[in-house]
Amino acid sequence: MKLVVQRVDNASVDVNNETVGKIEKGYMVLVGIKENDTKEQADYLVKKLINLRIFEDENGKMNLNIKDVQGELLLISQFTLYADTSNGNRPSFTNAEKPEKANELYEYFCNKCNEQIHVEKGIFGEHMEISLKNNGPVTIILER
CB of 11 within 8 A of CB of 22? Predict the structure, then answer.
């Protein structure tokens, strides 16, 4: 699994010109699932994401996690994180998990995050338009 985490002041996701997920301060996270990823990997990344200290404290140091700042998560399924462009210019997505299994693990990941913090999300498999105000900018990649 791969997460692209962006610290945001706000973010939203629209499907068919309708907002389906919206957060204020928190993380907008692209979630990529590759073939044979497991719930154990998802559990590890949930813990890593929730405890990631990339919000600034009173001294301007990145010492606070998302719970410390009462932040929210916007989670977006993103199979293109596993694009392979090693052969030519057209990406191959054979490393990405098949949709049914990927959706199952994505939902598991979202539910585990939601046990600890408020989660909004996109719609798996749909064309989505994402808007965000990246704070910093701060973008971190987590992978397991």
Answer: yes
Question: Which CATH number do you get for residue 7?
Answer: 3.50.80.10
What's residue 35's pLDDT? 96
Give the residue numbers marked as catalytic. Answer: 80
| Prediction pTM value | 0.95
The Cα-based distances of 11 to 16, 44, 139 in angstroms read 17, 25, 14
- Per-residue pLDDT reduced to its tens digit, 24-76: 999 999 999 999 999 999 999 999 999 999 999 999 999 999 999 999 999 99
Instruction: Domain of residue 119: give its range.
Output: 2-143
CA-based nearest residue to 33, from 98, 128, 84: 98
The first and second tokens of residue 88, run together, are 């030519």
Q: Based on the structure, what is the number of domains in the chain? A: 1
Token duo for residue 21: 């997920």
* CA distances (Å), origin 50, targets 118, 125, 129: 11, 25, 25
